[in-house]
Amino acid sequence: MVNPGGESTMLGQWRIVLRQAEEAARLGRYEEAYALATRPGVSDHHHAVQFRSRLALDLIARAMRRGGVDDLAGAVDDLDLAERLGAPPDSLAAARLNLADRVADEVRVDLDAGEPARVLERVEELARHKIGGPALRRAKEIAEAWQNGLAEGRRGEFGRAQEHLDRADRLASGAGSIAAQQAVTAAKAELENRQKGATPKVEALYAALSEGKWPQILSAAEAVLTSVPEHPAA
């Protein structure tokens, strides 16, 4: 009997493959160890099952070490592989929560810097790898409200924009994120100034539209778009 890798696993040859897997794991080549330990003719043996369980726990431990030195991508990869190896769900969940708490500090830096889109991108990417926790959820709520406010402002929906930014402000205050709250306050001030500047331009656009004078309409529309880049009428 020959497995897909071309290596016989009859008459105890599975032991050789398993030893190769153990050596690969000892050298830190966990993906290779996983591939060897899950080969047909090897994977069902009791020793291979035990090896995969140990390997999964070793991967969780390495993920925590990687997280401790800010190697987030490596930690996430280790936890994903540990899950494929059948790691205990409780151990896996605890490790992911620990990693979420570590990365939450980095996400807060983006929030404090006024980058809600970046925060949402990072939190959603982490969620695809089942990395999440209370701190990341709070950051996402603030970023969503903030980003919605900015989007409404680009369309000229200043009332709705202000409501979203007010919500982001309250959430940031409740989370004790003083720097983020200050950044949201700055965004609110910028929105108010933009509204003041855009209002006469929008009025001029609608006046030109009512008169049907296309040169004036085009000129007025261009003026609106400098302040409200996604204004529907402009």
Account of the 3D structure:
The model is unreliable at 1-11 (pLDDT under 50). Helix 3 runs antiparallel to helix 4 (72-84) and helix 4 (72-84) packs antiparallel against helix 5 (89-112). By secondary structure, this protein is mostly helical. The longest helix has 34 residues, at 178-211. The termini are far apart. It has ten helices and no strands.
Descriptive tags:
234 residues, mainly alpha, 10 helices, 0% strand, disordered N terminus
Question: What does the secondary structure layout of this molecule look like, with pairings?
Answer:
Layout: H1 13-26, H2 30-37, H3 46-68, H4 72-84, H5 89-112, H6 116-128, H7 134-154, H8 158-174, H9 178-211, H10 214-227
Helix pairs in contact: 1-2, 2-3, 3-4, 3-5, 4-5, 5-6, 5-7, 6-7, 7-8, 8-9, 9-10
Q: Could you give the distance between the termini?
A: 72 Å
Low-confidence stretches: 1-11
Q: State mean pLDDT (0 to 100 scale).
A: 84
As a whole number of angstroms, the C-alpha radius of gyration is 28 Å
Q: Please bin the fraction of helical residues.
A: over 70%
Output the number of helix runs. 10
The coarse overall form would be elongated
Count of extended strands: 0
Strand content: under 5%
SSE class: mainly alpha
Series of H and E elements: HHHHHHHHHH
Give a short account of the largest sheet.
none
